[in-house]
Amino acid sequence: MSEAIRELLKKNHMSVTDSRLQILDLFYHAPGALAHADIEKKASDKIDRVTIYRTLQTFEEKGIIHTIPSADNSVKYALCKDQCAEGHHHDNHVHFVCDNCSKTICLDDVLVPEVKLPGGFEPHQSNMVVNGLCNECRS
Amino acid sequence: MSEAIRELLKKNHMSVTDSRLQILDLFYHAPGALAHADIEKKASDKIDRVTIYRTLQTFEEKGIIHTIPSADNSVKYALCKDQCAEGHHHDNHVHFVCDNCSKTICLDDVLVPEVKLPGGFEPHQSNMVVNGLCNECRS
DNA sequence: ACAATTTTGCAATTATGTTGCAAATATTAT
DNA sequence: ATAATATTTGCAACATAATTGCAAAATTGT
C-alpha cells in the first residue's frame, strides 16, 4: 500500500523517510489541497514544522505537488496528477475553492482557457481559481 | 486634486483621514498593484503598520480595492475600476504578474473567461492570474 | 464648540517562515 | 551485516508578518 509511495520517492531520487511517507500519505487521502497548517495538525506522529516546510519545498521542486494561489495568504498544495517534470510544472487545470466548507479541489479535467493579452505581454503560465459551492455543499 | 479622493471616502461613509488619503493617493499613482509592504515603504509620512492593515481591509470591504491572489504568500491590492458594491466585488478581469520586474497589473479589458465546471459545482467568482513578461520588460 | 463616533498608534501577543548546525537516519559500497 | 558517505531531521535562534485590546487623538454631526 505504501509501496507505491516508496516507489515515487525513489523514482525522484529522494530518501525514504517517515515524514515523507506520512506527508505523501496525507496528500493521497486528503479530500482537497492541504496547507502547511493542515499537515501539521493531521499528521499522526508529530512532524517538525521545519521538516514540513522543507518537505513541501522539495516535493514541489520534484514535481510531486503543486501550489495553488489564494487571495488570503494561505498557499495550499496538491498532488500533481501526472508527474510534472522536475522544476517544470504543467498543471494547467482550474482550482475550485468552496465558500462553504473551504475545501480546495483540483478540477483535473477543466483546463485553464487561453486569453488574448494586450500587445507586448508575453504569457508563460496561467492560474485560475473559481470560488463557489462544491458538489457536496450544494446538496 | 485630492478632492476626488475625499469624495470617494465620503461617498462610502468613511472618515477622511491623513492615512487614508495618503494610501489612496499611492494607489492612484502606483504603476501596478501594491502589497502591504509597498505601502509601508512608499508612504511619505510614516503610517503605522496596523493602520495600513486596517485601512486595506476597510477599503476592500467598501469595494474600493480588490485583492489579487498569488502563489507566493504575498497578496496585493489594486483599485477597483468601477466602484464595486459594498461587500460584493465584480472585478472579473485578468491580472498579470511580470516574472522580471514582478509588477502586478490589472488587465481591465481582459475578462476572465467562463469555464464549464463538473456537475454539482456552482461558481460564484473566478480569478485568473497570468505570469510572464510585461510590455515594458519585453522591450 | 461640544458630544458622539471613528480612527489611530502603541504594546503585547500570536502566527508564519528561514537559517545554521549537530545528531539521527538512510543509502551505498564493501 | 558493517562501515563509510550522504541526506534528512529536529532544535534553537532569529526574522518577518499579522491580530487584538485599549487609551489617546482626530473626525463628524449638531
In short:
The structure is a homodimer of 139-residue chains. Chain A is α+β, with helices and mostly antiparallel strands. Chain A is built from five helices and six strands; from the N terminus they run ααβααβββββα.
List the helices and strands and how they pair.
2 copies of one chain form a homodimer.
Chain A lengths: L2 H9 L6 H12 L4 E2 H7 L6 H14 L2 E4 L7 E4 L13 E6 L5 E8 L10 E12 L1 H4 L1
Parallel strand pairs in A: 4-6
Antiparallel strand pairs in A: 1-3, 2-3, 4-5
Chain A binds a DNA duplex (30 and 30 nucleotides) through α2 and α4.
List descriptors:
homodimer; 139 residues; alpha+beta; Arc Repressor Mutant, subunit A; three-stranded antiparallel beta sheet; three-stranded mixed beta sheet; DNA-binding
Distance between the termini of chain A: 33 Å
Strand content of chain A: 25-35%
Rg on CA atoms of chain A, Å: 16 Å
**From the structure provided, what is the oligomeric state, counting identical versus distinct chains?**
homodimer
How many E strands of chain A? 6
N-to-C SSE series of chain A? HHEHHEEEEEH
Query: Largest beta sheet of chain A: what is the strand line-up?
Result: 1-3-2
CATH architecture descriptor text of chain A:
Orthogonal Bundle
CATH class identity of chain A: Mainly Alpha
Low-confidence stretches of chain A: none
Biggest contact = A-B, 41 and 40 residues
Number of helices of chain A: 5
Shape of chain A: globular
Mean pLDDT of chain A: 92
